[in-house]
């Protein structure tokens, strides 16, 4: 019976696979292995067997899965590389200049006018304090640096312990240290 069949254990070993992985692929491909009770050398355990055609299908499925994973990693690295060059502005916004002058928001925008339009839905009195040319990848570091000592109210919303001017000065110092960006910025 086992002349044209290969045990899942042997197939896995021959192909450097884990048996559980082979069984998962078998299940995904809806392949039901043939089962047989082993002799004395296998202590009566049930052994699962697959055909050569099933073995080929498993290897093809695993190769296809690896190809998809590599393509996704490649797309992620392309996004990361694109983000390296994504230039816009880092903004400092006063959310309620009249009623709560120490409450502010900082962040990155590739299109500041569109970003302001979005913010004004929830904070209609928002005013731009200042912007600096910025790469998207600098945003998190800039936020951490310029909000040091401030109270975090929300993801990018803070309350300055001193004044908003002190936050603006931190922004100035931060961006003075960063490489100068050339070209038109999306303001």
Polypeptide structure, described:
With 187 residues, this protein is α+β, with helices and mostly antiparallel strands. It folds into 2 domains: 5-83; 86-177, no CATH class. Helix content is 43%, strand content 25%. The chain has helices at 8-14, 19-28, 52-85, 112-119, 139-146, 164-177, and strands at residues 5-7, 34-37, 46-51, 87-96, 100-109, 127-135, 151-152, 157-159. The strands form 2 sheets. Strands 6-4-5-8-7 form a 5-stranded antiparallel β-sheet. It has a 3-stranded antiparallel β-sheet with strand order 1-3-2. Strand 7 and strand 8 (157-159) form a beta hairpin. The longest helix is centred in the middle third of the chain and has 34 residues, at 52-85. The protein is rod-shaped, with a radius of gyration of 30 Å.
Overview in brief:
By secondary structure, the protein is α+β, with helices and mostly antiparallel strands. It has six helices and eight strands, in the order E-H-H-E-E-H-E-E-H-E-H-E-E-H. The N and C termini lie far apart (75 Å).
DSSP helix count? 6
Q: N-to-C SSE series? A: EHHEEHEEHEHEEH
Strand content: 25-35%
| Approximate shape | rod-shaped
Approximately how much helix is present in the residues? Answer: 40-55%
How far apart lie the N and C ends?
75 Å
Give the total of domains: 2
Strand arrangement, major sheet: 6-4-5-8-7
Uncertain segments of ≥5 residues (pLDDT<50)?
Answer: 183-187
Count of DSSP strands: 8
- Overall pLDDT level: 84
Radius of gyration: 30 Å
């Amino acid at each position: 019976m086992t002349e044209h069949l290969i045990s899942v254990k042997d197939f896995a070993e021959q192909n450097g696979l884990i048996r559980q992985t082979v069984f998962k692929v078998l299940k995904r491909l809806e392949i039901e292995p043939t089962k047989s009770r082993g002799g004395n050398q296998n202590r009566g355990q049930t052994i699962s067997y697959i055909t050569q055609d099933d073995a080929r299908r498993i290897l093809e499925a695993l190769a296809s899965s690896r190809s998809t994973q590599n393509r996704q990693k490649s797309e992620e690295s392309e996004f990361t590389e694109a983000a390296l060059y994504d230039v816009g502005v880092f903004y400092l916004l006063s959310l309620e200049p009249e009623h709560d002058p120490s409450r502010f928001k900082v962040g990155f925008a590739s299109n500041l006018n569109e970003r302001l339009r979005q913010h004004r839905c929830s904070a209609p009195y928002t005013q731009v304090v200042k912007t600096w040319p910025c790469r998207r990848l600098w945003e998190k570091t800039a936020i951490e640096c310029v909000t040091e000592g401030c109270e975090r109210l929300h993801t990018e919303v803070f309350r300055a312990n001193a004044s908003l001017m002190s936050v603006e000065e931190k922004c100035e110092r931060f961006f003075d240290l960063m490489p100068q960006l050339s070209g038109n910025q999306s303001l």
